[in-house]
Amino acid sequence: MGINQKKQQCLIAEWQLLILTSLLYFLSLLVHQFEKLSNMKLALSGKILADKPILCVTQNFWKCKSMFFHKKEPIHAVNVNEPNPRFAQLLLEQFGGATGELSAALQYWVQSFHVENAGIKDMLQDIAIEEFGHLEMVGKLIEAHTKNVDQTEAYKSTLFAVRGAGPHFLDSQGSAWTATYLNEGGDVVRDLRANVAAEAGARQTYEALIKLATDKGTQETLVHLLTREISHTQMFMKALDSLGKLTDPFFGNIKPDETVALYYNLSTNGDGKDERGPWNSEPTFKYIANPLESHS
User: Fold this and answer.
1) Among 137, 141, 139, which Cα is nearest to 83's?
2) How many Cα neighbours within 13 Å face the side chain of 271?
3) Measured at the alpha carbon of residue 88, what is the angle toward residues 149 and 145, in degrees to the nearest 5?
4) CA–CA separation, 85 vs 153, rounded Å?
5) Is 133 helix (H, G, I), strand (E, B) or coil?
6) Across 204-212, average pLDDT
7) Which among 139, 174, 275, 291 has the fewest CB atoms less than 10 Å away?
8) Residue 2: enclosing H or E segment and its boundaries?
């Protein structure tokens, strides 16, 4: 290879290096401008605030993709002074159980994609994100109640002796979490009513846990969680009321037949005295005292 050919190759290599360096420089400028525009967008959206819940959602600048930000500070302080691994196993019910926070968070979040009403969609996503925060609080409680107690007999008698300290996708009996716990069906009225029932189940479980808790800090956290279940129930009921469906059982497109206003007396005390109330009385219902005679 001649000297001139070598010089030519060196010159080509230098030009390639210069072009590559220039491209990298302009790419870095582009990234810098993107970051500035993204930060401006986030600041204007008002989404990232110091007092926001554990997670917040914003939009990617270039594509419509959700982005989650985790703030490592619970909405309510979690303090445990007297660790109790046996109680921690009971707490698993609200981590990986049917009435637990994981189930609620996923249920409300998925339901939000079925809703056309912008206000109710936003409410479902706000509550779902708060439930993820509650899941973290329950997880922190379980972590605190199982930390540095692995040599105790109480610890050795629990699920944690096999699975390890901290929360797991299990309920208090060791059954694995399953998506069959979730109740969502694609209709906003049906879903909101399912949510009222879900919050009632969670509230009942928290009340049982509070009665069994001996650590004051744990009790305070559980009372906060129970309180928020009541708040969410009220929110779901208000949403139903805004749709005119808080007391109206009908929804959908298929009209019921003529039996919709009938109450069949199918259980008796044997003494001929039947229990009566607004659930089986006029003007809403026609009471059928003897269904067999009416169909004979």
Assistant:
1) 141
2) 4
3) 40
4) 10
5) helix
6) 98
7) 275
8) none
Q: Which of 187, 30, 212 is nearest to 116 (CA)?
A: 187
Nearest to 110 by CA among 214, 24, 182, 200: 182
Report the share of the chain in percent with pLDDT over 90. 67
Return all residues near 213 (Cβ < 8 A) that are at least 6 apart: 87, 219, 222
Task: Tell me the Cα Rg of the chain.
Answer: 29
With beta carbons less than 8 A apart as the criterion, state whether 99 and 149 touch. no
Give the residue carrying structure tokens 């949403």. Answer: 239
DSSP for 156-188 reads HTSTHHHH-SS--SB-TTSPBP-GGG----S-H
- Predicted local confidence at residue 67, as pLDDT: 66
**Model confidence pLDDT, tens digit, residues 96-145:** 999 999 999 999 999 999 999 999 999 999 999 999 999 999 999 999 99
Distance CA 166, CA 179 (A): 22
Q: Write out pLDDT tens, residues 219-258.
A: 999 999 999 999 999 999 999 999 999 999 998 889 999 9
Model pTM greater than 0.90?
A: no
Cα atoms found within 13 Å of the Cα of residue 135, Cβ hemisphere only: 22
Which residues does residue 287 pair with via DSSP β-bridges, in sequence order?
A: 263
> What is residue 241's three-state secondary structure?
helix
Range 142-169 average pLDDT: 95
